[in-house]
Amino acid sequence: MMRQQRHPTTIVLRDVRIFDGMSDRIRTGHVVTEGTKIKTVGDGDPPASAPEAAVIDGRGATLIPGLSDAHVHLILAGATQSELTFGGAGIGYLRAAAEAEAMLMRGFTTVRDMAGDTGDLKRLIDAGALPGPRIYPSQAGLSQTGGHGDFGMVYDVPTVLGGTATRAERLGLMRIADGTAQVLAGVREQLKKGASQIKMMAGGGVASAYDHLDVLQYTADELRAGVGAAADWGTYVAVHVYTGAAIRRAVDAGVRVIEHGHLAGEDDLRLMADHDVWLCTQPFAESDHRYPSPSSAEKNRQVCTGVERVFGWALDHGVRLAFGTDLMLNPAGSAKQSEMLTRLAGLAGGPEKGLKVATSGNAALFREAGLRDPYQNPTAADVAAYGAGPHVAHLGVIAEGAWADLLLVAGDPTRDLGLLGDPATNLKVIIKDGRIYKNTLP
User: Fold this and answer.
1) Which CATH number does the domain housing residue 119 bear?
2) pTM of the model
3) In degrees rounded to 5, what are phi and psi of residue 25?
4) 359: which of 43, 151, 283, 339 is 20 to 30 A away, CA to CA?
């Protein structure tokens, strides 16, 4: 019989340099967790701990909040296209579970999944049955016929014209929805399945076969229908889009988050700043994805030329910036997630600012889910125990009352973000939800 592992209810981390995710100052002190929350953040040595507490001597290493990735695809990152196309339905879920554990061991304790049937995986991880990060699921991404999310064969009859659902739809990865009535039904379907936010495809994509990057997708009325249906549930719509024309249509329709945006113009970033719209973008390099199709490879090249521009304009105009990776269909390359994080040092204004984006910055984006936020709505007990400050039950920070998601790093990532590019070596301790998942220290 397998013996169930016991986890300490109290963890004491002493002699650590604390980067809290918000402040520019690093303080030396201690952190105590109790249950799933951070109980104490203090200077100097901690008070005497109970005998059953786990005490970790950091020996001057740097303690940071758990990292987050605001644009992942757990099912698509964990499996190849041929496995999803020709394998059984279970392969995607099993691969996603393995990928979730791998992300956690890279230090990513929270992710936002931007197209995939991950609601059940989220629930199992939250219950402690499987290791993995917290998941903000979008469930299936919504696409028009022939849009970025239409992965059916060219000879398939669209569902709106009487055809059957595509393989991607049957796997819960995408939902083809044309017209406002189908968009309303598609949004409500994802919310019914536990989506914390909605993903819609508003422009052309790299991996999709039928659309060009400049193509506008979803009419203004269709986008407004999706935004309204999401707002009725207290949450928001994020859209896949690269070009300025598509961004302008989405902003006018009330979309809260632009995913990608690499081919936008400076005026488009100004518009986003004026409307307080988020940009969740990715520090892509051409080598991050493998595209056997020459058309997709060329589209990928075009997108990558806009990386430095869009990051620079976002910083210049005060656009609310979030970080994601968007890796997919190459399980052997999913570890690039850590490498992509390190690129924020050169794109987000330095290593410390990059680290803030990937911790408290992403957590602020996640709060756009409002009442559908599964992790950042404080209970009455939280407020009674820790006060009503903005830190209570929040992610991406080291503060009393925050979730106990912590990483102990050898060295100082606020000066050298490259340390996080080698998590196997430099992450000495990984704690998520008050549980120790890795500890290579005595």
Assistant:
1) 3.20.20.140
2) 0.96
3) -100, 135
4) 43
